[in-house]
Backbone:
C-alpha cells in the first residue's frame, strides 16, 4: 500500500526553551567571541537565494573545531533546538537559511588545511576551507582538485559536500562526491563519527559517506573532509564560439562531446546571459550579438592545443559565426571569470531571481531550451539560461521585480513549470545546488511517495528528534 510521506515541520518558537537558558549553556562551551546573539545574528539568516523562507535565529555559533561543534550540538539536542549548519552561504536554494528559533552553526572559522599528501594524492581539510584554497594547496605539490563551482573563491568544501556541488569541469571530472574519500561528522546527539577511508577502495559496511554527500546538513554536520586528488593536468587551451541559433550550437556541441577528445569544459550562454555579464563587468569581453555562445576547453596532456583546433573546425563546420581560439592562460581566465559571473550578473539585471539547476539527458537539451522559451513567452517572465551543456546541467534564471506581486507570482509559476519540464524529459530538479527549501514542493514529482517515505526513515535513523536542518532537503 502506497502512503504519503509525512511532512516534517521546523520546531515552532513556542516549543523552545527560554533563549537565556540555551545561550547560557552555549557560553559554557564556546568563547564569547564565537557566539553571536541579538540583532547581529540577523546577518546570518539566509544564503544567496531570493524569495526563500527564513526565521530569526536564537544565536549564531562559530566553532573552530570538531570538538566545539559536538559540544554545541549536545546543548541543542538537550533542549531540542533546531541546528542549521552554514558555510559561506553562497547557496541558491535556501539550504543554509535560518529557521525561527534555530541555532545557526557557521563553520567558516574551521578553515585549516590539515594535510596534503602528495604520495597518496589526498588532502584533508576542515569544512570551512574555501574551494579555491584547497585547489591552490593541491597545485602547490603538483596535484589537482577538479570540482569548481561558480562560487569557488567563496564557497567552502563543507558546503560543497553538503550539496554535492559541481562546476564547469564536471563534463570531464565529475562532481564533489566523486572525490570525497572520508568525512568527520557530528551526529544529532553530539557524537562524532568518521565515515569512509583514505584509501581508493573499501566496501566494508554501507557507504555512509556517499549518503552524507548531498544531504544538506540534515543527517549530520560535516566538520572535516578527506578528498582524492589527481595529477596536475596540462595547461589548458580553449575557445569561444558564437551561433545565430541555439539549435546550431547544440548540434555542434553534441559532435564535440561525441569526439575522441573529451573537453574539460563545455559551457553554454544564451543572448540575455551574455548581455547581462558584459553589462555587469566592464572588463568582460564575451562576444556579443549572438543567440548562443559556447565556451570549450581541453586540458589533455600533449593534446590540448590540437584538441581545441579540432573543436574549432567542428564548430566552424557546424555554422559558428565567430570562433576565437585562446591558447594563452590570460584569455582563458578572462573567459572563465566572465562565465562565473552568470548568477550575480542576472540578479543585478533583473532585481531578483529564482535560480534553477535542472538536469536532463544531453539528448533532450534542445527540448529543454525550447520548452523554457515557451514558458517565458506564456508567462511574460524573462528566463535567461546558461550552464554546463557538457553534462546536461543548465541554470535557467527567472528574473522578476520583488516589489511587483504579479511578477513574483509569475516567477514562481515559471519555476514550478521548469522543474516539471525537466522531470518530464527524464531529468532532475537539481544537479548541484541542492533542494534546500526552494524545491521541496516538487520532490514527489521526481521521487514519488514510496521513495520519499524511505528517505524520511533514513533521516529519522540519523536524527530521531529532527533537529538537524529541519524542513530542508526532504
Residues:
Amino acid at each position: 500500500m502506497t502512503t504519503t510521506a509525512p511532512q516534517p515541520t521546523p520546531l515552532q518558537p513556542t516549543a523552545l526553551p527560554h533563549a537565556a537558558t540555551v545561550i547560557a549553556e552555549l557560553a559554557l562551551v564556546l568563547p564569547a567571541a564565537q557566539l553571536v546573539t541579538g540583532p547581529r545574528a540577523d546577518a546570518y539568516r539566509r544564503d544567496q537565494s531570493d524569495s526563500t523562507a527564513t526565521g530569526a535565529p536564537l544565536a549564531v555559533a562559530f566553532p573552530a573545531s570538531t570538538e566545539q561543534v559536538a559540544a554545541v550540538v549536545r546543548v541543542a539536542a538537550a533542549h531540542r533546538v533546531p541546528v542549521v549548519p552554514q558555510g559561506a552561504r553562497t547557496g541558491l536554494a535556501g539550504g543554509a537559511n535560518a529557521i525561527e528559533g534555530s541555532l545557526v552553526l557557521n563553520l567558516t572559522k574551521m578553515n585549516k588545511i590539515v594535510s596534503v599528501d602528495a604520495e597518496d594524492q589526498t588532502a584533508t581539510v576542515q569544512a570551512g576551507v574555501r574551494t579555491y584554497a584547497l585547489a591552490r594547496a593541491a597545485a602547490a605539490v603538483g596535484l589537482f582538485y577538479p570540482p569548481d563551482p561558480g562560487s569557488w573563491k567563496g564557497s567552502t568544501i563543507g558546503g560543497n559536500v553538503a550539496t554535492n556541488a559541481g562546476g564547469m569541469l564536471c563534463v570531464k571530472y565529475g562532481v564533489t562526491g566523486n572525490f570525497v574519500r572520508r568525512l568527520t561528522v557530528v551526529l544529532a546527539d553530539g557524537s562524532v563519527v568518521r565515515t569512509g577511508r583514505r584509501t581508493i577502495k573499501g566496501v566494508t559496511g554501507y557507504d555512509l559517506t556517499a549518503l552524507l554527500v548531498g544531504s544538506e546538513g540534515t543527517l549530520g554536520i560535516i566538520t572535516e573532509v578527506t578528498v582524492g586528488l589527481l595529477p596536475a593536468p596540462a595547461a589548458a587551451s580553449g575557445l569561444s564560439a558564437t551561433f545565430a541559433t541555439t539549435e546550431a550550437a547544440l548540434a555542434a556541441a553534441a559532435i564535440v562531446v561525441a569526439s575522441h577528445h573529451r573537453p574539460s569544459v563545455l559551457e553554454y550562454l544564451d543572448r540575455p546571459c551574455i548581455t547581462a555579464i558584459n553589462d555587469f563587468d566592464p572588463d568582460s569581453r564575451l562576444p556579443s550579438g549572438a543567440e548562443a555562445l559556447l565556451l570549450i576547453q581541453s586540458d589533455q596532456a600533449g593534446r590540448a592545443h590540437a584538441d581545441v583546433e579540432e573543436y574549432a573546425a567542428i564548430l566552424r563546420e557546424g555554422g559558428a559565426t565567430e570562433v576565437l581560439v585562446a591558447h594563452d592562460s590570460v584569455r582563458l581566465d578572462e573567459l572563465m571569470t566572465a562565465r562565473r559571473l552568470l548568477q550575480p550578473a542576472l540578479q543585478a539585471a533583473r532585481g531578483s531571481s529564482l535560480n534553477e539547476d535542472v538536469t536532463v539527458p544531453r539528448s533532450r537539451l534542445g527540448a529543454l531550451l525550447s520548452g523554457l522559451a515557451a514558458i517565458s513567452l506564456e508567462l511574460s517572465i524573462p528566463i535567461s539560461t546558461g550552464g554546463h551543456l557538457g553534462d546536461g546541467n543548465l541554470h535557467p534564471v527567472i528574473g522578476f521585480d520583488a516589489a511587483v506581486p504579479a511578477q513574483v507570482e509569475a516567477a514562481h509559476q515559471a519555476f514550478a513549470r521548469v522543474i516539471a519540464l525537466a522531470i518530464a524529459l527524464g531529468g532532475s530538479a537539481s544537479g548541484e545546488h541542492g533542494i534546500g527549501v526552494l524545491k521541496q514542493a516538487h520532490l514527489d514529482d521526481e521521487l514519488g511517495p514510496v521513495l520519499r517515505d524511505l528517505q524520511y526513515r533514513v533521516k529519522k535513523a540519523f536524527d530521531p528528534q529532527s533537529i538537524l536542518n529541519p524542513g530542508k532537503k526532504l
Remarks:
- The chain is about 35% helix and 20% strand.
- Residues 405-424 form the longest helix (20 residues).
- Residues 384 and 397 are 5 Å apart (CA to CA).
